[in-house]
Specification:
Length: 411
Amino acid sequence: MRRFFDRAKLDEKGNVALIGALALPLIVGGAGLSVETTYWYYKNLQLQSASDSAVFAAGIEKRSGSDDAVVRAAALSSAEDNGFDPAAGGITVHLPPVSGKYTGQSDAVEVVLTASVDRFFSQVFDSRPITLTGRAVARFARTQDACVLALNRTASSAANFAGNANVTFNGCSVMANSTAVDAVSIQGAASLSADCLISVGGVQTNSAVTLTKCPAALTEAPPVADPFANVSPPQQPSGGCKSAPNNPKTSYSLSPGRYCSGLDIKGDGALEPGIYYLDGDLNVSSNATLRGSGVTIYLHGAAKVTINGTASLDLQAPTSGPYAGILIFADRANRSGNTSRFNGTAASRLTGAIYMPTQAIEYLGNFSGINGCTQVVGDTVKWSGSASVAVDCSALGLRTIPAYSIVQLVE
């Protein structure tokens, strides 16, 4: 009997050894999987960090108006600076985002990074590499809106208020993209009240400045994008050329279309709703009257605007459609260095945006638009008239013009 139990003990030890030998790969594989899981988690954190940095860089470029290629290049460069290896994965930049809460929003950017990570011990179970994904979304949140925006990046006095100007900007700011020390300047007897004065460079003012939202001027601010960059210029209308009467004896109306020699307004003129495509200048002569609602005037080529100080104007942009809120739209390709001058009687009104991204604008009139709804966006802007201007004009078709935005990680 004793020999039987001794033999049983030997068999039990053998079984334990056998089971241990069989279980060893599983034990080693499980331990390896635990180590690898920690490693994958660490690599995923690295990838997410690179995604966050990449989308932040992309958001800054997008906010400043860079084209999509530059935005994507900034995202890739930042990702690489933060340890991302393009050879081991891929980067996709969505402008705008295609997933999540901010899908389709033009003020947001989405970056997705992928990376392949090799297996080690876990190859016992699966030989395929692990694919990790990092995703982030950045949005530039608007904190200030502009009524006047000077787009030039280097000009001195890019946004200038001079002479006897006395301007009140209700709920909006003055913004200049110039890096000059006097990018925004208020000179002489000019006085100004605004939410803020904002400049990529500096601001020089006299004592007659009131800021209602900022304790002081904001300098060294990030540049802002052209607010109308996504608006395509009108197509040249088909049909023949039109013109205004040369010596009108009575009031007259003009219809939309192509004006090959521009528009020289004399007497009492009215514009019917639509797009006026001018291959020459818009001139409004002394004592002339020009009125119209639902109107967009497109200045093709080197065309410019000259409005005499004794002219009377009452023009309003469309409130809907592709050119909603845009009263005057100057050709972006115009590199002539022209200056357009807006004057008129104190009773005049220009309701809508004056958008001349490559022209200097001189706003000399003591008037704005309906309820103060006038926006001025030019290469440079000089204002020497007196007026009250407002920002809440969405009911009249005008869009908001960002003047200061903060890039935030939102997903």
